[in-house]
Amino acid sequence: MDSLLSQDEIDSLLAQAAGDGGEELEGALAEMVSEQAPVDPAEMRTFDFRRRYSISHNFEKNLRSICDNLAKSATVHFTNLLRTNCVLEFRRLGLQTFGEYAAGLPNPTCISVVTLAPLKGSALFYLDLSLSFAMIKKLLGGPAEAETRNREYTEIELSIVRSMIMKFMDLLRGAAGRLVELDPHCVTVENNPSYLNSLAPGDSVVVLDCHFHLENVEGRLNFCIPIAGFEPVRVLFDPEESCEPRPAAEVRRDRALVLDLVGGTDVEAVAKLGEMQLSLEQIMALEEGQVLTLDKPVDAPLALEVEGKPLWLGAAGRVHQHRALRLTERLSEE
């Protein structure tokens, strides 16, 4: 864009700022601003600093790769299925909240709630209603014409639309196969966007927007996927830089150093004989010589707790007139 400063201009401003020419810097900035063409308000986009919309470059690159693969495979498949020229184009990747996305849906519409395991939760698949009617007509042997009025589906049309949506899901599974094994399922198909309650209005979502051409009819279709749903497979979409594993000798050395540092630390070790629950009234009524029944028999193994965490099981006994605990089973490696 023309409003962006070049690297030479930035270096020049920094050089002026490094000296004592504050007034010169202010004048230079004012001159550069006056030379810039006015910005069209339609090109401006507000940013809400309370919500984080950003994803990494690798994340976006992998999503775009999946969409490009989907566009190629869907173009071939639906051209063969409908026996006419079809083209699916991937247009853009957008980040917004679900409330913003839902506000842009027409009513009536064609939107399906789907699951994309191993992704968490639900996602949405939107298909332009007029385009879906043209696809139905073409499948049934008629001309690819848009419906003259927007209406809800009949039961037969709903069944056909559901099968087409599942075909898109199958194509998405193939497009993502090199990165992640998806197991998509269609939960429901809605004509009224007000019935959508699978996501909260403030949830951040990624919208994969595509455009479908069917002879003289065209329309949008897109996937709306919550960003939080990618958490189980985040490492696949946003791989971190791999690091070489540490040598075993180095790990043993560091472990020994840590043990030397904490070896002299005092900790509390408790052999728990048993537990019982008493009310405050029962405790106040206790008398000398009264017997309390614990939850374990006398010969039951006792748990040795270190700082409240059970680490060993043992048997009670005596050593040189002192009560002792003979360890019999380890419960934790820590």
> How much of the polypeptide forms β-strand, as a percent range?
15-25%
The CATH architecture of the largest domain is: 3-Layer(aba) Sandwich
Instruction: Fill in the CATH topology of the largest domain.
Output: Chemotaxis protein chec
Overall geometry comes to: extended
| Unreliable residue stretches | none
Q: Number of helical runs?
A: 9
What's the order of the H and E elements? HHHEHEEHHEEEHHEHEEE
Give a short account of the largest sheet. Answer: 6 strands, antiparallel
Give me the secondary-structure category.
alpha+beta
Q: Biggest sheet, strands in spatial order?
A: 1-5-6-3-2-4
Task: Count all strands and give the number.
Answer: 10
Mean pLDDT: 83
CATH class of the largest domain: Alpha Beta
Distance between the termini: 58 Å
Folded structure, characterized:
The chain is an alpha+beta fold. It folds into three domains: 7-43, no CATH class; 57-237, CheC-like (Chemotaxis protein chec); 268-283 and 297-334, SpoA-like (Surface presentation of antigens (SPOA)), CATH 2.30.330. It has nine helices and ten strands. The chain has helices spanning 7-18, 22-35, 57-82, 98-103, 129-139, 155-175, 234-237, 248-262, 280-284, and strands at residues 86-97, 111-117, 122-127, 183-190, 204-214, 217-226, 269-272, 302-306, 309-319, 322-330. The strands form two sheets. Strands 1-5-6-3-2-4 form a six-stranded antiparallel sheet. Strands 7-8-9-10 form a four-stranded antiparallel sheet, with no helix packed on it. Helix 3 (57-82) crosses helix 6 (155-175). The radius of gyration is 33 Å and the shape is extended. The two termini are 58 Å apart. The mean pLDDT is 83.
